[in-house]
Amino acid sequence: MKLNSEKNHEPLVHLTRRAYMSPWKAIGIRGVAIVASLIVSGIVALILIEKLNANPGRIFDFYKCFIDGSFSTEGMTWKFFKNLAILLCISLAVTPAFRMKFWNIGAEGQVLMGMLGAIAVAKTCSSLPNWLVLILMLIAAVLCGIVWAGIPAIFKAFFNTNETLFTLMMNYVATYFVSYMLLVWVPSGNAMGIVNQETKIGWLPTVIHNYFLIIVAVLILTGILFVYLNYTKHGYEISVVGESNNTARYIGINVKKVILRTMILSGALCGLTGFLMAAGLDHSITSTSVNGQGFTAIMVSWLAYFNPLTMIATSGLIVFLDMGGSKISEVFDVRGALPNIIIGIILFFIIGCEFFIRYKINFRKKEVVDKSSKPEPVPVPQEEVKEENQTDEDEMPSAEQPAEETEQKEDN
Amino acid sequence: MPVWLNILIDSIAFGATFMFGSTGEIITEKSGHLNLGIPGIMCMGGAGGCLMLNLIGTSKMPGFMIVMLGIIASFASAALMGLIYSFLTITLRCNQNVTGLTLTTFGTGLMMTLMAKATQTKYLNIPKKYFRFPFADRTDSLQKLGVMFFLVIAIIVLAWFVLNKTKVGLNLKAVGENPSTADTAGINVIRYKYLATTIGAGISGLGGLYYIVDYSASGEAYKSLEAFGWLSIALVIFALWRPLRTIAGSVLFGILFSFSSYITLIPFIETTLKTKPILQMLPYVVTIIILIVSSIKNKKENQPPSSLGLSYFREDR
Questions:
Q1: B103 touches chain A (CB under 8 A)
Q2: N or C: which terminus of chain B carries fewer CB neighbours within 10 A?
């Protein structure tokens, strides 16, 4: 590091990977990013919203709307937690696949198919007792989810078909399939009414509040998935396959089996979400019932670094912003999709601030370099498990090795 | 004009939307960046162009100026979106998939809000004629082959030429295949990545303007743009990362798409309301089949750029 201070040989800015950052500092950086993003979204709102344009003093109302959107009444608070639970559940569903680096962006379609399965059962079996119908609905929903996720998984496992596009296309197929089924059920083309409105067959029972059962179910699921991913053999296998297919094969993991099993799990969880939505919330279906949450879930899962417990916070953040944005649209009378803009801006900042957590910026100035490089004089490339596929093949400090580029590109 | 020719030309014109989107995405992906923000970028390209036309559409400017300014505004606003993506993924090395998805959320949201402010009579009614320049007076589908259609063909040929026949193109491909090797060879990796993603985004964005003002020429058109963005990304794989192949792919997509609306015109085929969703499913099912077939064949030269999706940090070994 000690370059002789010859002129202009050291670049002005020089990046190094951080070995470690204290969690508090990391949270601090994220906090700063969120504050900055709120300021930027305020500025964007000032430009975009006519009522703010004319009357900039109302900017405080703008920020107040965020809190009002989720917590102004008791009903709103329940709705906040319900939305959180549903988004969290879809995020949980995509997470096992993501840990395996299987980019399943088809949660939208998988959840929709789950709903379709559940609704189909509720419609056809309305003479059976309620508990039996609910079980049948659950089974149907999970099976539909599994089929929708399993098809891309089979082709990925055996032919290495690009799963991102496959699952994306399956979303559209699901959407049109639902439109088709709706036309079969309601040939006039009108919207489908609420299923079994009088008998309430195939409706989840109400405990404490309409949404209570769903919230509890998702919370339990979060715990189970956390344990499954972190403390079981299956979870370990998923991580290894995600890090490197070749390593997995080398230590005797059947990669195809893991891909199929994980995608079946992922699809089953999506189906389960579909069941919760069909039996607990909508009791009906349209081709847009999932409303883009399958895509939002990807961001939720990613922002939490695929950790189910952190996902509670990230899905909470997104639901909070979404409901706040809707409230703002209502109060300030904005047409269009304001919540999406706000979510976009704030996520840009949150994504961007990860850079400052992962990398250290060294300026050319001497003091800065000295102060920071005292404890560890040479920044040896550290074992960052997250993106590198460094396995414990060699623990030697890699300074001796010449560039080994071929190692990095084994997937694709 | 016979019915079949009418359908074919309409499909070709429709396909031009995808041609813009996927040519831009091919250029982006050649630099090793998978931009899932294309739907948002196309939306913003459309919105930027339409807002400009909203300003100047009813003015007394000559027609070609209106077209030029519309195209420039569209390109610029899409390129700006591309710049956000580039800054986040190239300089800050963020995950490309999340950044792309966020860009899509942001772009579609912003477009919906902006387009709600534009008035259809200003940005559409008069500029439409200029955009459909050579055949604006026709009543059949030939009218849709306007200025921007010829522009996209030119862009595709140019992209093919630059990528395959010039040093710049070879350098760009080297960056996408293996950035550290390219860096060692003295190629300015960061600059290539920035230029490719930004220009690629700009080209994709033109697709939005084309679709709104020229092809569909309706005030509701912008609401369906997002889906076409996703299809454009799919087309890149379909076209195996080769610009010229996007033409064939886009036309095929266009035919499959217009099938559901034109099938009633074809004699001897009875259709009911129910068949429509099944027909609309067709383009997606065909894409899936092509994906599967191409993956089973699994040829070496048909693979994506090998560092696609990975961010490049010089000091990582």
A1: yes
A2: N
